[in-house]
Amino acid sequence: MGDRRPARGLSRVARFADANEAQVVASALRGAGIPVLMQDEHAGQANFLWQAALGGFGILVPDEYAREAVQFIRQHRIEARAAPEPDSESLSLANDPDWARQAAKRRNMAVRWFVVALFFGPPLLLLVFALCRGAYNAITGAG
């Protein structure tokens, strides 16, 4: 029978609202020689509406790589400003208010587009159908 040992010594160093962004960061960390586990990867991709309920996608690394992973992510962020050196009690980027604010903006933007598509999509489809039907009737003389 398979040996099922619980995952021990893993630290969440970042969370992302978008699976693609989390995968890019995980890939970059793996390229830097840091072992990575992406949390909630498959559940969030199977049903995108669960992403907010699951809290996004977490980046988990072994405890001994946590400081190195946080430093790597902070050094390679798109923002040009210098990130402060993390102290021992705030190794996670989840504690960084700027990071959390940006993640909330990305999450809120996805929800806004979903609501717009939900409310304006069907009426727009009906309008396009009516216009196309009117144009077809005008061209063919059907009516």
Structure description:
- It is elongated, with a radius of gyration of 23 Å.
- The chain has a three-stranded antiparallel β-sheet with strand order 1-3-2.
- The N and C termini lie far apart (72 Å).
- The protein has 143 residues and is mainly alpha-helical.
- The chain has five helices and three strands; from the N terminus they run βαβααβαα.
- The longest helix has 44 residues, at 97-140.
Briefly say what this structure is.
By secondary structure, this protein is mainly α. 55% of the residues lie in helices and 11% in strands.
Averaged pLDDT: 77
Spatially, the strands of the biggest sheet line up as 1-3-2
Percentage beta strand? 5-15%
Structural category: mainly alpha
Please provide the count of β strands.
3
Helix content: 40-55%
Which characteristics define this entry?
143 residues, mainly alpha, three-stranded antiparallel β-sheet, 5 helices, disordered N terminus
